[in-house]
From TrEMBL:
It comes from the Bacteria. It comes from Evansella caseinilytica. Keywords: Oxidoreductase. This is NAD(P)H dehydrogenase (Quinone). One of its GO terms (molecular function) is NAD(P)H dehydrogenase (quinone) activity.
Length: 217
């Protein structure tokens, strides 16, 4: 099993780094080939430059983007790890997906080109559950992940949310790490398509095949 871990956190003292270490250890224990993309340490440029956007038509990618695309094609599954900032993934992680999953590479005319892949995502929050529910932060992520991974053809979109992280006790953090290992086991112990998606990507594909969108996506 080939797995790319996309990690978006600026410093090593974070709880996200603890998740990253647990994820890598769990995946290796199950015999996976693992590539870690630490976006900050790689200094990945998240800004969409003119040539990056032109690549939607020209399919001429920068070396930086091309190398990422090759690894995405290599992967059977992606694992993403990030904190939630203002209800959303960090902007530099969004920039990674905007550039790497560009039209023409990841989808074309509403059809996902990255079929038969899966994503398992871990998110950390500072707030606690009732607040996050009330202000719809879980929904924001579900909607984004559907529009991103559903759109490009992923078969499974699995998410795990860790709340109240800065104020949580060592016991709770240990429990979160245990849950992370169990979450990683699902990559190996569930079949492709078994987890599924929560959204409307299949409907989109159907509408496109019936000509409704007239190739405008
Ligand atoms: C700029 C910024 C915005 C934040 N916005 C939110 C938010 O919208 N919701 C939330 O629950 N926590 C928010 N937080 C708190 C972080 O999510 C939390 O500190 C982090 O997930 C803890 O994990 P870490 O130790 O890996 O950073 C924010 C933190 C920062 C720095």
């Amino acid at each position: 099993m080939n797995i790319v871990v996309i990690y978006a956190h600026p410093y090593d003292g974070s709880f996200c780094k603890g998740l990253l270490d647990t994820v890598v250890a769990s995946l290796k224990k199950r015999g996976a080939e693992v590539k870690v993309k630490d976006l900050v340490k790689m200094n990945f440029d998240p800004v969409m430059r003119p040539d990056d956007l032109k690549a939607a038509k020209t399919k001429i990618y920068t070396d930086e983007v091309k190398a990422e695309q090759e690894d995405i094609l290599w992967a059977d599954a992606l694992v993403t790890i990030c904190p939630i900032w203002f209800g959303m993934i960090p902007g530099f992680m969004k920039g990674y997906f905007d550039k790497v999953f560009i039209t023409g590479f990841a989808y074309e005319n509403g059809v996902g080109l990255l079929q038969n892949k899966r994503v398992f995502s871990l998110f950390t929050f500072g707030a606690n559950d009732p607040y996050l529910d009330m202000v719809k932060q879980y929904q924001c992520i579900d909607i984004l992940w559907d529009n991103l991974f559903g759109m490009v053809g992923f078969k499974d979109i699995a998410t795990k949310f860790f709340t109240n992280v800065p104020l949580s006790s060592d016991e709770v953090r240990q429990q979160y790490l245990k849950e992370t290992s169990a979450f990683m086991d699902q990559i190996f112990d569930s079949r492709l398509g078994e987890i599924g998606q929560n959204g409307h990507a299949e409907l989109l594909t159907k509408l496109v095949s019936q000509g409704y969108l007239n190739g405008r996506i």
